[in-house]
Design goal:
mainly alpha; 350 residues
Length: 350
């Protein structure tokens, strides 16, 4: 339907206020169309769903994709190609809404249908496989997610080349699930390949390269390669400092990890410098009480205790702990260290 297509074009161009009336009118018409015009209504719901995903409105996207799915499953002229697209959209929307089981079911059906329609090595499998991996990762099934992402990456790399942006995104996702599965060697291999591609495209002083160095440093630290971690994190810090605004919170992240690594290897003076710098940056960039500020203060407290200022450090850790406790699950280790400081004066519980 032309109205929906116009709305999608306007939304893609960043003109959401222009797109909204077109899409609203198209959706109103779609709801009144007879069964014989189901294909037109499905097209409207698909356009509206994709536009909502791009706008970050996963709830609206899910509703639109569900409407399209109902029509597709009841239409006499069922279109399996469109159903794969709808299921893929539904899976991605469900993942963003935290509905991992629903995403798993939709993505799994999309993969099975795509394999039957196009074959097991077709490029049309890349999207469903990636969506399935996202759902599996949300459910903690990281080994399954890695298997699917390896296949998706192989297909995409074969058809689009190793340096195409979607291929690099798949490689990044594969690195994430390998790390979550505890395969640090595999994670680091993928991160290094990703870094090489990013440096070749953007040069070695681009913030996206710093992102890769930051991720590599975190992985190296987790595998016990402290020297390698500090080198990668230092590179990330220098690139961020040279390319980002002074008040960018990103500038603090390699400093936070560097401080933790330096504490782990018995360098509290260096850790104190990094923690203080991170805290100063975060106080410019984030509202008071943000968990990242709490983490910076906890690391500073640990450094102060290690340098002999025990009561000062414990008092600082006590003040910082409520903020650090609000950190997301992937940052829980920082909060645990801080909690131990308030209890024992040591980052090691007990």
């Amino acid at each position: 339907m032309v109205l929906a297509e116009l709305g999608s074009v306007e939304a893609a161009a960043g003109r959401a206020e222009v797109a909204a009336p077109y899409l609203a009118r198209a959706l109103a018409i779609a709801g009144t169309l007879p069964a014989s015009a189901a294909a037109d209504a499905i097209s409207v719901y698909l356009d509206a769903g994709h536009t909502a995903v791009d706008a970050g409105d996963a709830g609206a996207a899910s509703a639109h994709f569900r409407a399209a799915e109902r029509l597709l499953r009841t239409s006499p002229a069922r279109d399996p190609n469109a159903l794969v697209e709808v299921l893929l959209g539904q899976a991605n929307a469900s993942t963003r809404l935290g509905r991992a089981q629903a995403a798993l079911a939709a993505a799994g059906e999309a993969v099975r249908m795509a394999e039957a329609l196009y074959g097991p090595q077709h490029a049309r499998l890349v999207g469903p496989l990636s969506a399935l991996a996202g759902a599996q990762r949300a459910l903690g099934r990281n080994a399954d997610a890695a298997s699917g992402l390896r296949l998706a990456l192989a297909i995409a790399q074969r058809d689009y080349g190793a340096d195409e942006e979607n291929v690099l995104s798949l490689r990044n996702n594969l690195a994430l699930v390998l790390g979550a599965a505890g395969d640090r060697a595999g994670e680091q291999a993928e991160l290094r390949l990703l870094l090489q591609a990013r440096e070749a495209r953007f040069g070695d002083r681009h913030p996206i390269v710093a992102d890769g160095q930051q991720n590599l440093g975190v992985s190296l630290a987790a595998s016990g390669d402290h020297a390698g971690a500090l080198a990668a994190l230092g590179t990330a810090r220098r690139i961020y400092d040279a390319t980002l605004p002074a008040a960018s919170a990103k500038r603090a992240f390699p400093r936070l990890k560097q401080a933790q690594v330096q504490l782990d290897i018995g360098e509290p003076a260096a850790a104190e410098v990094m923690a203080r710098e991170a805290g100063a940056i975060l106080r410019q960039a984030l509202p008071p009480g943000h968990f990242a500020i709490g983490i910076a203060d906890c690391l500073l407290a640990e450094a102060r205790i290690a340098r002999g200022a025990v009561e000062e450090g414990r008092a600082l850790a006590t003040r910082a702990l409520p903020g650090a406790m609000r950190a997301p699950a992937e940052q829980a280790a920082y909060a645990a260290r801080c909690r131990a400081l308030t209890a024992t004066g040591s980052a090691t519980p007990g």
